[in-house]
Design brief:
Blueprint (H helix, E strand, L loop, with lengths): L6 E7 L4 E7 H6 L7 E8 L7 E5 L8 E4 L5 H14 L9 E8 L10 E2 L2 H9 L8 H14 L5 E5 L9 H4 L5 H6 L9 H14 L8 E7 L3 E7 L2 E5 L21 H8 L5 H10 L2 H6 L4 H9 L3 H25 L4 E5 H6 L1 H8 L11 H5 L6 E2 L8 E4 L4 H13 L2
Parallel strand pairs: 1-6, 6-8, 9-12, 12-14
Antiparallel strand pairs: 1-2, 2-3, 3-4, 4-5, 7-8, 9-10, 10-11, 13-14
Helix pairs in contact: 2-4, 11-12, 12-14
The chain binds adenosine-5'-diphosphate (ADP).
Adenosine-5'-diphosphate binds next to helix 11 and helix 13.
Family: Belongs to the acetokinase family.
Pfam families: Acetate_kinase
Organism: Streptomyces angustmyceticus
């Protein structure tokens, strides 16, 4: 890496999408979280279809969002198209200023506890984890292979969603099932959204003016997918997602916690196939299953109009959230802060208010006027007197991936 190489390209490859951000780390280091170092952001959607779309925003050039529609056959074509957009702004992928490419990789199993420079052995290991992450790891691998082919000379770094959770103690990570069966099939709780939980718990400590090692935080990452984590002194000690992202909170389309016997029942009594049960629990449950909508804005609008199904869906969502706040308070013993993040956590004041309502005895409260403030900055929403700080801390997974990548390659 040359001394002038200060840019990191972050790639998040899905099965038919490619999200990217180009960041200048000399800026982001001095403006952590403010996004000042973001040079370009974009997204390729519907890869492999006739109607693929590339949306590119050249932030550094101060230009407007550009949209291109037309067939993009595969991830290689997608990355080349992204490269052409970046080159048009003078930020091409062949630039000597590019220090590394950071890849989001969903499942790192137990092996990857840190961001890792990708070589053939690492690729093989990510491949070995496909059976436990069949939806995500193959897409991540495609992104990595494509980027390596395009810039074989450049360090490529994998940043794993599971890594932050590898500090979970065995008693939190193990399911209470036969040990031999569990070990043979690598069945245990891995947790996801780790990059966000790491970033938000650290930012929350910063907001409190404390060292992360001194504080215990409950992070509530409430997006379309949602997860909670208990972070003690900067280390994750429990998280709500498990072997897969299905466990835990009520989500946009996933059920979260459910009696596993429901699945036998659906097969034996309702005659559903394995795949149908999978689709039901992952795609047709959660808020969408309960009321037909998974967007919290729409649910709140319906509640305001007196819609009872939407109100019940909201109550079920909040009830589960409260149970996790209670459970993780017990796991941590002492809670210094509860931090809300992601689409719902950052924007839905009624969710934050309802989640801590009635928890005053546990030291939790929300100040209505602070909670109503809309802002992209980390902020406290609890009143002065509250023993536990309640915070809204916007997550930034791309910045976290870029920082971890840059730290590794510039070390
Ligand atoms: P993901 O990354 O899991 O797709 P996000 O973190 O982007 O999800 O969150 C998306 C969700 O955030 C939407 O489905 C919607 O429910 C919620 N959301 C976004 N903006 C608002 C808002 N202004 N008010 C309430 N909810 C919002």
């Amino acid at each position: 890496m040359t001394a002038t190489a200060t840019r990191v390209l972050v790639l998040n490859s899905g099965s038919s999408s490619l999200k990217y951000q180009l960041l200048d780390m000399t800026d982001t280091q001095s403006n952590s979280g403010s996004g000042a170092g973001r040079l370009a952001v974009g997204l390729v959607e519907r890869i492999g279809e006739e109607t693929s779309r590339l949306t590119h925003t050249p932030l550094a050039a101060g230009g407007d969002k550009r949209e291109t529609e037309g067939p993009i056959a595969d991830h290689e074509a997608a990355l080349k198209a992204v490269g052409a957009e970046l080159a048009a702004d003078g930020l091409g992928l062949d630039s000597p200023e590019l220090a590394a490419i950071g890849h989001r990789v969903v499942h790192g199993g137990l092996k990857f506890t840190e961001p890792t420079v990708i070589d053939d052995a690492v690729l093989k290991e990510i491949e070995r984890l496909v059976p436990v992450a069949p939806l995500h790891n193959p897409a991540n691998l495609t992104g990595i292979r494509t980027a390596r082919a395009l810039r074989p000379d450049l360090p490529q770094v994998a940043v794993f969603d599971t890594a932050f959770h590898t500090t979970m103690p065995e008693h939190a990570a193990r399911y209470a099932i036969d040990v031999a069966t569990a070990d043979a099939h690598r069945i245990r709780r891995y947790g996801f959204h780790g990059t966000s939980h790491a970033y938000v718990s650290r930012k929350t400590a910063e907001l409190l003016g404390k060292d992360p090692a001194e504080v215990n935080v409950i992070v509530l990452h409430l997006g379309n997918g949602a997860s909670a984590s208990a972070v003690a002194g900067g280390r994750c000690v429990d998280t709500s997602m498990g072997l897969t992202p299905l466990e835990g909170l009520v989500m946009g389309t996933r059920s979260g916690d459910i009696d596993p016997a429901v699945t036998f029942h659906l097969k034996r009594v309702a005659g559903m196939s394995e795949d149908e049960v999978d689709v039901l629990l992952n795609k047709k449950s959660g808020l969408v299953g309960l009321c037909g909508d998974n967007d919290m804005r729409e649910i709140r609008r319906r509640i305001d109009e007196g819609d009872e199904r939407a109100a019940l869906a909201f109550d079920i969502y909040i009830h589960r959230l409260k149970k996790y706040i209670g459970a993780y308070s017990a796991v941590l013993g002492r809670v210094d802060a509860v931090a809300f993040t992601a689409g719902v956590g950052e924007n839905a004041a009624p969710v934050r208010e309802a989640a801590v309502a009635g928890l005053e005895e546990m030291g939790l409260a929300v100040d209505a006027s602070l909670n109503a403030v809309r802002s992209g900055e980390p902020r406290l929403i609890s009143p002065e007197y509250a023993r536990v700080a309640v915070a809204v801390v916007p997550t930034d997974e791309e910045l976290e991936i870029a920082q971890q990548t840059y730290a590794l390659v510039s070390a």
